[in-house]
Amino acid sequence: MQVNLLAAFALMLILEGLLPFMAPAAWRETFRKMTELSDGQLRFIGLGSMLGGLLMLLLVK
């Protein structure tokens, strides 16, 4: 169980690092735009991301 959790965390870090590594200017612009969003919009994006991850997890299991 602990190994799976660490593997999932490692994959998350790899995926999170792809865009800043491959296209730093696009990543910076996207991040800048996200700082201008309201709290409600950011929460909605976070909720969508969590639900998408949960759906993917359910499909894999």
List keywords for this structure.
single chain, about 60 residues, mainly alpha, 3 helices, flat
Describe this structure in words.
It contains 3 helices and no strands. The protein has helices at residues 2-22, 24-35, 39-60. It is flat and about 40 Å long.
Counting structural domains, the number is: 1
Backbone shape: flat
Count of distinct strands: 0
Instruction: Count the DSSP helices.
Output: 3
Percent of residues in helices comes to over 70%
The topology string of helices and strands comes to HHH
Gap from first CA to last CA: 14 Å
Q: Measured on Cα atoms, how large is the radius of gyration?
A: 14 Å
Kindly name the structural category.
mainly alpha
Major sheet description: none
Low-confidence stretches: none
Mean residue pLDDT = 93
Beta-strand percent range = under 5%
